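Consider the tokenized backbone below.
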């Protein structure tokens, strides 16, 4: 019987597998497990913590996970993971809890970061997976210091959170009106330079029609809004290109209703822009998905049976529609034909709190200024 080499016991995985193979394997590990794998060795910790690795994993990992994030109360937040046959949830602690008040509102998410509004007049950008957070004031937008309870949603007609790949910078865009000068302003918060920038882009007129749907959605390098009431399908969706710093419009489907009680909303489903609304005549939620970005003829209709409003949140790995109903507990999964496939009843679900669909990542905020984790 052949004797084993005594040196085999001292060999590590790095002696057996080449670095390129280890790197390739880790890129395929689900993001939630990567955080724990950093404890395996100093080498693995260094590799997983590298910004280039985080960027590659975010773009190329086949196991990207969508979660519904919401705040149940000022000190408790949840990530609800939804997929084809399984669902789970995780409690996470919001940042900046060293002293009261802990008053948060969820404004959106982008590439693993969640944007929060914190009383009084602060924005907090937070990565729940890494724990990193950054706080920036927007007090100059508030109409007067006496309005201590004003939030960004109260002060602005439009706001949105996105990423400018050309500058490697995360941006918060806010359009607001000055009550004293009666002038509208467009400002952009650069998280890379930690500063607000006044933009000269021509604002849509009238700006106030977007106030009821002031929160924008980030897709394809631009932030998207839809007005509170649509009277014409043409020029229905407003977009702001973060690279060019310009506004433009996208037409909605021609078949949209013209009722005065028609209140559309936007969603991102499987990387595609979607417009949805409740149809009172058919008792269904109509979901129009733009299969090809900015291609008018690519709008495709899906219908979900509902006596009340259905809110689509994301697509599962098998491209089923996952969402929830207003004032109904749990999350629901439908196929393209509108058939109910599954009801996740036992998951946390907030009726009145703001929420966002969140994709986990290990990404860091780029910065020209040295930031410390809060």
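A designed sequence for it:
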């Amino acid at each position: 019987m052949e004797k084993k080499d005594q040196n085999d016991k001292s060999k590590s995985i790095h002696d057996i597998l080449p670095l390129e193979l280890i790197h390739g394997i880790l890129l395929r590990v689900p993001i939630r497990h990567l955080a724990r794998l950093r404890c395996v060795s100093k080498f693995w910790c260094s590799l997983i913590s590298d910004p280039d690795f985080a960027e590659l994993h975010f773009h190329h990992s086949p196991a990207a996970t969508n979660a519904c994030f919401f705040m149940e109360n000022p000190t408790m937040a949840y990530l609800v993971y939804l997929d084809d046959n399984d669902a789970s949830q995780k409690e996470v602690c919001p940042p900046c809890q060293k002293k009261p008040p802990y008053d948060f509102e969820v404004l959106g998410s982008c590439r693993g970061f969640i944007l929060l509004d914190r009383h009084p007049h602060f924005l907090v950008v937070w990565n729940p997976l890494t724990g990193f957070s950054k706080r920036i004031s927007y007090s100059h937008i508030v109409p007067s210091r006496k309005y201590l309870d004003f939030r960004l949603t109260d002060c602005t007609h439009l706001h949105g959170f996105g990423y400018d790949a050309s500058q490697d910078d995360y941006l918060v865009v806010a359009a607001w009106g000055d009550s004293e000068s009666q002038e509208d302003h467009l400002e952009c918060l650069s998280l890379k330079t930690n500063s607000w920038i006044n933009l000269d882009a021509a604002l849509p007129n009238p700006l106030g029609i977007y106030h009821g749907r002031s929160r924008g959605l980030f897709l394809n390098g631009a932030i998207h809004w839809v007005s509170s009431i649509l009277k014409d399908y043409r020029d229905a969706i407003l977009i702001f290109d973060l690279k060019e710093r310009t506004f433009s419009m996208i037409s909605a489907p021609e078949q949209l209703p013209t009722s005065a009680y028609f209140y559309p909303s936007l969603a991102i489903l499987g990387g595609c822009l979607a417009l949805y609304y409740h149809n009172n005549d058919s008792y269904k939620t109509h979901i129009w998905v733009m299969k090809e970005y900015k291609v008018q003829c690519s709008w495709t209709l899906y219908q979900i049976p509902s006596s009340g409003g259905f809110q689509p949140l994301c697509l599962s790995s098998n491209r089923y529609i996952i969402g929830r109903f207003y004032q109904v507990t749990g999350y629901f999964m439908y196929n393209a034909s509108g058939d109910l496939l599954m009801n996740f009843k036992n998951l946390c679900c907030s009726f009145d709190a703001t929420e966002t669909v969140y994709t986990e990542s290990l990404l860091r905020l780029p910065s020209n200024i040295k930031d410390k984790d809060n």
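Residues 369-374 have pLDDT under 50 and may be disordered.
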